[in-house]
Every structure is written in structure tokens, then in C-alpha cells.
């Protein structure tokens, strides 16, 4: 993560930690950012320090700058709200995120639990982490996410010795979202990680970006971000987490097991049948924000942290 000092912060009127801890207040008010503006200035100063400034070995992106927020919120994959890149920003904002958002954690655990989103967000301070996200379709963005390691949530239940994988499920609202037939992929959207991947400190449970709650098209109210894997592993709007013994089905794997592997680590050495993975287009950067072509880096640049998870594995076979 870029380590931002208080003086560098340009979210001068937004207090992520306060925003998240008081989320209900703002939902009632309609717009999350407007709610934040109403906070007293003393709360702002404290929250900036407690909520955003983080240090640590996992988050350093050097000089990379976040992509423009307008890009990250208007060019999305969220098939529940349309299959075109602009569809989610058009359609998802009309969806009213349920005020009650239970997250069920079950399966191979000693004590299954259902936590409200508010309970989840109180488990740890909100961190800002600037991560790259690279899509298999070759576009990439850099996003200042807000959240904390998914492991903090997963540690709330005691996995049994049988738990080898973690399966995730997106909320599905047939009234507000496309049907699976219309979208061409199964819903509820499902994804999965191996247990050690899910527990890795880089794997983020995110409920905000750019100092605010997540826009619907980016996965409100809570999503996973796995920065060393192709974007489709970063499942949005999750409501169910299951510890399982066998490798769980994934949406794009069900769609085609020849194109999309379970692991889906960003890897320029293994092409997707329809898209080379050697290069990517960094959206919203370069001359007039037209995007910059750049070489794709193995594990999306997070190899020092995550390569050991795959030692001894043939990453062409387990792609
Ligand atoms: N999650 C759900 N529920 N539905 C989706 O269609 N698309 C995935 C992933 N998570 C998707 C999803 C894909 S293909 C990508 S590239 C990322 O979300 C995109 O995240 P972004 O829109 O925040 O950039």
C-alpha cells in the first residue's frame, strides 16, 4: 500500500473509519459522502490518522498512483447488472442495497456464525490499501480499497481439520438483477479460494474505496479483493462464506472449464485462449487518460508475498 501521511490525504472532508463504523446513519441519509461531511472536525482529524495511515510489508506499490475514481466506477464487470462494461454503473446504482446485510459463515467450522455487516466492520480498524486489479480481459486499474484482511473475519469461526477451501457467494436479487439466462453465467455468482489463499494477509475484505463506501457497481456493501489473481476471483457483494473440503465450483469455471482455471493467478506466461496475458492496459492513465500499455507482471507484482503459496505447483496446469 502507498503509505499516506496525513498531509497527503486529499479526502479532507471524508473520514473512512467514521463513515464505516456509522454506516447506518449514512444509508438513512441517502448518500454516504454527504453523511461524512456532517462530522465534526475533531472526528475528522482522528479518523484520518486511525483510519487511513497504515504501514506494513504487504501494501507498498512504490510510485503507482490510484486510477481516477471515475474510471474505476464506470468501467466494471458485474454481470448481475449487465454484460457491457458501462452497464453496471448505469444499472447497479438503482439497486437498493438491503439495510440488513447478514454474512453467513458456515460449512466445515466448529461454530457457524451469522454476523451483520456492522458487526463485521467492527472487527478491525479500516485500512486503506492501494492494490492493482487486473482483469483477464487485459485491462487493469489501481484502487485505494478500504477494508481489512479477510482472515480477520475467517478467524471468527473455528475451521475443522476438513476445511481445505473457502467458497464465497454473492447476494442475488432476481428483481433487481439479470437472470442467469440473460447474463449467460450462473447466479448467485460463486467463487472460491484455497484456505491458505483466503487466509493470506493480502486478501482483502473491502467495504470502501476512495475514502467512501463502495459504489454498488464495485461490489457494495462488501466484497473480496485478491490482488494477485485475475479480477473475476474478486467476488462482489458477498453474503455467504463456506469452508469446504473439496475445491468449490466457480462461476467462470462453470461457464467454461477450458478457459478459466480455479487458481487464476495473474501470469503472463499462461495465456487465456481468447486473450494474451503478456500485456495490460492501465485504464485512466497516460496522455489524456487514454490508458497505458504495460507488461503484465507475474502475480500482478505481489510475487514476493504470494509465490511461496504455489511452490512446486505447475502453474500452466493449475492456471
Ligand atoms: N462479482 C460478481 N458478483 N459478479 C461479477 O460479474 N465480475 C468479476 C469480479 N467480481 C463479477 C464479480 C470480474 S470479471 C472482475 S474483472 C471484477 O469483479 C471487476 O471488479 P471492478 O468492477 O470493481 O473493477
Secondary structure tally, helices? 12
Question: How much is the average pLDDT?
Answer: 83
Which ligands appear in the coordinates? ligand MTE
CATH topology name of the largest domain: Sulfite Oxidase, Chain A, domain 2
Largest sheet: 7 strands, mixed
Alpha-beta classification: alpha+beta
Number of domains: 2
The CATH superfamily label of the largest domain reads Oxidoreductase, molybdopterin-binding domain
Alpha-carbon distance between the termini?
26 Å
- Which architecture of the largest domain per CATH? Alpha-Beta Complex
Q: In which range does the helix fraction lie?
A: 10-25%
Detail the poorly predicted runs. 1-58
| Radius of gyration, whole Å | 19 Å
Number of strands: 12
Would you list the SSEs in sequence order as H and E? HHHHHHEEHEEHEHEHEEEEHEEH
Strand content: 15-25%
Identify the overall geometry. globular
Highest CATH level, the class of the largest domain: Alpha Beta
Amino acid at each position: 500500500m502507498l503509505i499516506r501521511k496525513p498531509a497527503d490525504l486529499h479526502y479532507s472532508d471524508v473520514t473512512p473509519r467514521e463513515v464505516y463504523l456509522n454506516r447506518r446513519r449514512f444509508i438513512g441519509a441517502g448518500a454516504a459522502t454527504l453523511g461524512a461531511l456532517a462530522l465534526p472536525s475533531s472526528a475528522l482529524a482522528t479518523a484520518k490518522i486511525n483510519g487511513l495511515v497504515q504501514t506494513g510489508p504487504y501494501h507498498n506499490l512504490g510510485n503507482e498512483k490510484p486510477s481516477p475514481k471515475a474510471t474505476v466506477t464506470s468501467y466494471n464487470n458485474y454481470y448481475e447488472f449487465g454484460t457491457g462494461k458501462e452497464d453496471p454503473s448505469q444499472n447497479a446504482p438503482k439497486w437498493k442495497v438491503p439495510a440488513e446485510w447478514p454474512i453467513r459463515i458456515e460449512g466445515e467450522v466448529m461454530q457457524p456464525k451469522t454476523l451483520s455487516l456492522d458487526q463485521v466492520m467492527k472487527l478491525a480498524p479500516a485500512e486503506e490499501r492501494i492494490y492493482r486489479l487486473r482483469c483477464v480481459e487485459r485491462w487493469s486499474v489501481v484502487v485505494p480499497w478500504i477494508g481489512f484482511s479477510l482472515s480477520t473475519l475467517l478467524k471468527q469461526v473455528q475451521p475443522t481439520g476438513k476445511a481445505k477451501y473457502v467458497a464465497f457467494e454473492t447476494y442475488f436479487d432476481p428483481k433487481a438483477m439479470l437472470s442467469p439466462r440473460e447474463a449467460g453465467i450462473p447466479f448467485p455468482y460463486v467463487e472460491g479460494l484455497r484456505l491458505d489463499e483466503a487466509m493470506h494477509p493480502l486478501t482483502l475484505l473491502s467495504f470502501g474505496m476512495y475514502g467512501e463506501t463502495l459504489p454498488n457497481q464495485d461490489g457494495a456493501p462488501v466484497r473480496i479483493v485478491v490482488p494477485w489473481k485475475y479480477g473475476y476471483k474478486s467476488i462482489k457483494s458477498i453474503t455467504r462464506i463456506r469452508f469446504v473440503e473439496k475445491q468449490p465450483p466457480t462461476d467462470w469455471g462453470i461457464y467454461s472449464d477450458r478457459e478459466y482455471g480455479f487458481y487464476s493467478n495473474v501470469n503472463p506466461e499462461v495465456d487465456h485462449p481468447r486473450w494474451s496475458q503478456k500485456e495490460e492496459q492501465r485504464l485512466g492513465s497516460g496522455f489524456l487518460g487514454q490508458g497505458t500499455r504495460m507488461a503484465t507482471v507475474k502475480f500482478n507484482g505481489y510475487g514476493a508475498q504470494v509465490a511461496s503459496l504455489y511452490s512446486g505447483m505447475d502453474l500452466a496446469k493449475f492456471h
